[in-house]
Every structure is written in C-alpha cells, then in structure tokens.
Amino acid sequence: MKVHPPVDVPDEVYERLVRDDATTAFHPGGTAKMGDSSDPFAVTDPQLRVRGVQGLRIADASVFPTIIRGHTMAPTVFVAERAAELLRTAR
What we know:
Layout: H1 11-21, H2 73-89
C-alpha cells in the first residue's frame, strides 16, 4: 500500500512521487504530434519525418495530432500503412 506525503512537504517530494509512480492503463497517443511547419508543437511533419532528425520517421499512435475517442488500433494500422507507402515512394 502506498502512503502519500502530507501537505506540508516540499514540491520536490511530490515531483519525485509523480515521476516514480505515475502510469497509464491506456494506449498513449499524441506524444509526437504530426503537423505542418506552422505548428511549433508538432514533432513530425505530414510525411511522419521527425523534425531535426534526418532519416527517422514515427509510425504509431504517437503521431495523432489529437487523441481519438475510440480504439487506437485501426487508426494506428492506417498510419503504419501510410508510412510504408511513404517509404516506398521516398528517394
């Protein structure tokens, strides 16, 4: 059983608690957002290339610009198929 610190402890204790114990039971998505060059938060471009890293693409749920409300499997398969198509036509 976890015991949480009392209210009068320093912020660093809370930060350590979150870093050590935070987790998710869901499929994370949107952590490497895809977008165009006008979006400062976009990690990948529309061709799934990681900005600033030559030769690296991301092809999973992390490129979703917004989190979907349904299951992530089908859209992730679509992203993977699109990535395969992009790789075939690149060069």
